[in-house]
Amino acid sequence: MKNYKLILYTFSIIGLILTSCDPSVEAPGASDKSEVTFLPLITLEGGDVVLDCENPSYTDPGAVASAGGVEIDLETKVTGKYFGGNSVDDGPDVYSVAYSAFNSDGIPATGFRTVLWPECNGDLVTSIAGMYTASVARDGSSPAGYQNNGPFIIRDLGDDRYAISDAQGGWYEYGRGLGVTYATTGMVLKANNIATNSFTSEGNVTTGTFGGSNTFTSLVVDPIAKTLTLTVNWDFGYTFVSTWTQTDKYYN
Q: What is the per-residue pLDDT for 16?
């Protein structure tokens, strides 16, 4: 038995040597070929854009997509940050313009531009529309990082109706740094009488990713200080009081 095993082992070694020396037998991976792929590149013409609130004409500055120095197809998508538009012509908002492209191997690239269409500031006597910064307190607490954030927009919808960009005053979007998907968008107020702080909400609104219902409590207007104080109750058990200060810092 021992001799038989030795002979078998010897033939195995000889077979291995013969096979490895045979030029007609390819080694594993020998047929693999290296290929070069050029990553897509997007080059934006110009930077972010701020429109004139009174004459908000927008022309896209343009972008070019290329791979290996050769221009490739480019797609453009526009998203309104607070009010849901899909074109920069859809009214005052902060718009994200995304430029995307794919190379021949399906590898993507994306570039972004921000376009701000500011709302013209109202006089806070006949109109509360405008651009604002905001400082917010939750149940009386307002830590560092929750003050003087923005931009916030109160958009004039006509017929004394106003859309509020974030009814929680940026507590999660700016204070926590979670971004617009955690903002409380969609609140619309009817100004019954600005001088007497008489406003009516057109319905409760939810808080982005968290959900829950936010109920409008009050809006107090101070035309001298150029401020609004907005109070909402969130059914997660919190009250948010945000002080909005009208500003022209977001205009050209």
A: 34
Sequence-ordered strand ranges (E) for the chain: 40-44, 49-50, 63-67, 70-72, 75-80, 93-102, 108-117, 130-138, 149-158, 161-164, 187-193, 198-201, 205-207, 211-222, 227-234, 238-246
Note whether 142 and 230 are same-domain residues: yes
CB 110 within 8 A of CB 91: no
31 part of a folded domain: no
Count: domains in the chain: 2
- Could you list the residue range(s) of the whole structural domain that residue 190 is in? 130-246
pLDDT(148) > 70: yes
Separation of alpha carbons 165 and 235, rounded Å: 19
Tell me: do 181 and 215 sit in the same domain.
Answer: yes
Provide the sign of the torsion angle of the four alpha carbons 231, 202, 205, 184, taken in this order. Answer: negative
Q: Does the pTM exceed 0.85?
A: no
pLDDT of residue 55: 92
Q: Tell me, yes or no, whether 111 and 146 share the same domain.
A: no
